[in-house]
């Protein structure tokens, strides 16, 4: 079951981000495994929101929390998910 969650999360992670980002997260060891399993294997695979909406929320939360190191990756993921630069500027404002 745990391997299923991880594989599902890994697939979803690669749909949202890129291989370089996955390598960085997997390099975090156990923390990376928890991120992939929980955030991408459980949360990002739920049907309630589109990837676009999830990324919009992620950018808003990261900006509000001042998590500047994670913002660039989620800005790229947001553009990949269909958000426009104008929409991202608005959510950051």
Quick structural gist:
The protein is an all-alpha fold. It is 75% helix and 0% strand.
Characterise the protein shown here.
The chain is mainly alpha-helical. Helices cover 75% and strands 0% of the residues. It has six helices and no strands. The mean pLDDT is 94.
> Helix proportion of residues, in percent?
over 70%
SSE succession:
HHHHHH
Low-confidence stretches: none
Distance between the termini: 41 Å
Instruction: Let me know the largest β-sheet.
Output: none
Shape: globular
Q: What percent strand?
A: under 5%
How many DSSP H or I helices?
6
Rg estimate, integer Å: 13 Å
Class computed from helices, strands and strand pairing: mainly alpha
Main features:
93 residues, 75% helix, globular
Question: What is this structure's SSE topology?
Answer:
Layout: H1 2-16, H2 19-26, H3 30-43, H4 51-65, H5 71-80, H6 85-92
Helix pairs in contact: 1-3, 4-5
